[in-house]
């Protein structure tokens, strides 16, 4: 591609993207097309034999995507935990791909490696732990937690495990986590050979925090049975309701029993930047490792996760290897860092750039304002639901609110009532997810099927929330009528 062509179609693409950002709130949140209809739109052409003009390709790819996508940057998108992407991150990805450093080895990415090191240091500073924490950027929350899990095992398991493998360990290595922990923990236990029975899902109390008395008792029971506890996970913002565990007590238990203390802060830990929320996060400085996801509450485009480790040597002990065909110096020799020695990846992209640039463009105080606004909007959602006669507000923590639709003429009590409400709210969720007016997801709270909204979105306004309350209630009335008609 010539310089002139690159410039021409590059400018056109930027114009198209700018226009998309400008009108995103007027578009449906998601396409209403079925997978079969999408396949038809895409067509079933076979692999092109000869090349096609780049201008035409980019123009049709833009149209395909802008007309047939789910937009998590839409102001009425509140599903799962996927944020609006900061435009500077979009440009950063273009720049990163242009230089295309391989941030696995320092020699292959001289400045990019320094930028990733600084990004990690700033992320540690951002959440208020020592900037001496080291770490690595990864693709997201699962990978950040996996990386920490493996480092914990190296640090706490019997030393021969690296050579002899898990099957030769005399004791079962046990992990502890609250019942509310994201599914990554199950995946880690299965993939890394511990087995899902090695995970102790500790019950949560009435506020949805891990019951730390049960945690301690379970550790004692396992020790008495000859197992080897090695890691406790505390959650800083659970995926369903946003609750932060009592991290200080978990830290103390880990100290008593010499266990690795990991915090899954993939979603919620950036809220530690807010002075009035510091109390919630007391104990994070004690963590041996922390997972946090810039692609959640730091508004980075996918993919960007981060593992922070108090003593980064545990990462090197876990992941470093030195084949003869790598002639370069080891990490820390002469100040160099090779990120392939810090995690599962070998060749690595420059995902740090988008995080590093956004941290500077927005700044600590800018993030404090944006994150606080998301929390206030979530509180507003909860309050409006609480006031509405056909909605029941259930929980509100950080920027997650849960609620359910309750028809006015429904019987007051009884098992049947609860079963009907679960069916009704599930049907409402499915309708709303496919309808394109707004997008939310679900949570099960105390066996109640709830509509769940998570706001990690700098485009959302109070007006969006007010409109969404009306959309939910309207869908609730329609679906209730339909279901009642079916039952009659
Ligand atoms: C608390 C928590 N941990 C881990 C994850 C997994 O993150 P990812 O989807 O980026 O792998 C999530 C995702 O929502 C989460 O909320």
State the gist of this model.
The chain is α/β, with parallel strands linked by helices and 488 residues long. Helix content is 45%, strand content 13%.
- Uncertain residue segments: none
Strand content: 5-15%
Number of helices: 15
Helix content: 40-55%
Walkthrough of the structure:
There is one protein chain. This protein is of the alpha/beta class. 45% of the residues lie in helices and 13% in strands. The chain is built from 15 helices and eleven strands. The protein has helices at 3-23, 35-42, 54-67, 87-99, 110-127, 141-156, 161-164, 184-191, 212-224, 247-257, 294-297, 313-319, 352-387, 415-435, 462-487, and strands at 134-138, 173-178, 199-202, 228-235, 260-264, 289-292, 305-309, 391-397, 400-405, 441-445, 448-454. The strands form two sheets. Strands 1-7-6-5-4-2-3 form a seven-stranded mixed beta sheet, sandwiched between helices. Strands 8-9-11-10 form a four-stranded antiparallel beta sheet, covered by helices on one side. Helix 1 packs parallel to helix 3 (54-67), helix 5 (110-127) runs parallel beside helix 13 and helix 13 crosses helix 15 (462-487). It is globular, with a radius of gyration of 24 Å. The chain starts with a helix and ends with a helix. The structure holds pyridoxal-5'-phosphate (PLP).
């Amino acid at each position: 591609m010539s310089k002139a062509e690159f410039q021409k179609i590059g400018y056109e693409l930027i114009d198209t993207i700018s226009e998309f950002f400008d009108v995103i709130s007027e578009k449906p949140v998601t396409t209403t097309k079925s997978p079969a209809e999408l396949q038809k739109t895409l067509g079933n052409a076979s692999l092109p034999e000869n090349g096609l003009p780049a201008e035409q390709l980019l123009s049709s790819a833009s149209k395909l995507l802008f007309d047939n996508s789910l937009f998590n940057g839409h102001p009425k998108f509140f599903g799962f935990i996927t944020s609006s992407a900061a435009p500077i991150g979009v440009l950063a990805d273009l720049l990163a791909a242009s230089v295309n450093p391989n941030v696995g080895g320092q020699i292959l990415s001289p400045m990019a490696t320094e930028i990733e090191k600084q990004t990690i240091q700033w992320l540690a500073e951002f959440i208020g732990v020592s900037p001496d924490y080291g770490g690595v950027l990864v693709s997201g929350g699962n990978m950040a937690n996996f990386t920490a899990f493996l480092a914990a095992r190296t640090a706490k398991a019997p030393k021969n495990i690296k050579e002899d493998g898990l099957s030769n360990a005399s004791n079962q290595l046990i992990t502890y986590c609250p019942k509310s922990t994201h599914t990554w923990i199950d995946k880690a236990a299965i993939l890394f050979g511990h087995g899902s029975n090695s995970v102790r899902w500790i019950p949560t109390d009435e506020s949805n925090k891990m019951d730390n008395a049960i945690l301690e008792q379970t550790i004692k029971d396992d020790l008495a049975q000859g197992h080897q506890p090695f890691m406790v996970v505390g959650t800083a913002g659970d995926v369903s309701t946003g609750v932060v565990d009592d991290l200080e007590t978990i830290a103390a238990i880990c100290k008593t029993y010499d266990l690795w203390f990991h915090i899954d802060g993939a979603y919620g830990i950036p809220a530690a930047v807010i002075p009035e929320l510091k109390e919630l996060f007391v104990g994070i400085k004690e963590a041996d490792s922390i997972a946090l996801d810039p692609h959640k509450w730091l508004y980075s485009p996918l993919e960007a996760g981060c593992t922070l480790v108090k003593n980064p040597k545990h990462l090197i002990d876990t992941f470093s290897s030195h084949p003869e065909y790598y002639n370069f110096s080891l990490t820390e020799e002469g100040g160099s860092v090779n990120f392939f020695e810090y995690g599962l990846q070998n060749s690595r992209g420059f995902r740090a750039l988008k995080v590093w640039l956004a941290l500077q463009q927005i700044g600590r105080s800018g993030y404090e304002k944006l994150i606080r606004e998301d929390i206030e909007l979530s509180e507003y959602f909860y309050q409006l639901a609480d006031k509405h006669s056909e909605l029941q507000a259930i929980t509100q923590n950080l920027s997650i609110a849960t609620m359910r639709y309750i028809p006015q003429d429904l019987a007051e009590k009884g098992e049947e009532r609860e079963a009907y409400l679960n069916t009704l709210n599930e049907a409402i969720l499915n309708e709303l997810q496919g309808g394109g007016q707004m997008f939310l997801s679900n949570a099960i709270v105390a066996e109640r099927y709830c509509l769940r909204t998570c706001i990690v979105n700098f485009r959302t306004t109070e007006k969006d929330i007010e409109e969404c309350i009306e959309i939910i209630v309207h869908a609730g009335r329609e679906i209730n009528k339909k279901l009642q008609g079916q039952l009659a």
